[in-house]
Every structure is written in structure tokens, then in C-alpha cells.
Amino acid sequence: MRYKAEITFDCDDKLIKKCFESEQSEGDRSGFKIEESARGVKFLVEADDSVALRATLNSITKLLTVYEKMENIKGGK
Predict the structure, then answer these.
(1) What distance in Å separates the CA atoms of residue 8 and residue 42, rounded to the nearest whole number?
(2) At 44, which helix (H) or strand (E)?
(3) Where are the alpha helices (DSSP H) in the chain?
(4) Would you tell me how many other CB atoms lie within 10 Å of the CB of residue 63?
(5) Which burial class, exposed, middle or buried, applies to 40 when counting CB atoms under 10 A from its CB (0-12, 13-18, 19+)?
(6) SS3 11
(7) pTM value?
(8) CA 10, 11, 15: angle at the middle one, nearest 5?
(9) Average pLDDT of adjacent 10-residue blocks, the chain of 77 residues
(10) Sheet containing 3-10: which strands, arranged edge to edge?
(11) CB distance 44 to 33 below 8 Å
(12) Distances from the Cα of 49 to the Cαs of 1, 11, 59, 74, in angstroms?
């Protein structure tokens, strides 16, 4: 069974795409691609099983959390 997920990160900052381009990969069981969309950045995730899907989604969300925290520090929030 093949799993697919799509995450859209609403932002107009092109830096987020640059941050994730080095992480973009196709592993044995899962991987993701990054695309620019009208609303921001879109992550297209594919995995062979639910465990691999969850691991890839966790990696993406952890990096988004770091990005968000850095933006808050930069913005003085």
C-alpha cells in the first residue's frame, strides 16, 4: 500500500523552500518533494507504510517548528 500526504505551509518567505531543499529526499520507504504554490510552500510526501509516513511527517514538522521559533526570535515575539 502506498501512502501520500500533502502539507501546505502558508508563507511568502522563499527562505523556507531553501531550508528544506537540502532535506528533500527519496529514501527506501519514504520521501518528500517541495513545490512552491500560490499560498506558499507545498510538501508532497510519499511512503510505503504508515510508520515511514509518520517518520517523514515528524521530520518536516520538527524543521517547521525550528523555522517558526527562529522567525519569532527574529521578530522579537
Answers:
(1) 4
(2) strand 40-47
(3) 15-21, 50-75
(4) 14
(5) middle
(6) coil
(7) 0.80
(8) 135
(9) 92 77 78 87 94 94 89 76
(10) 3-10, 40-47, 30-36, 25-26
(11) yes
(12) 7, 30, 16, 38
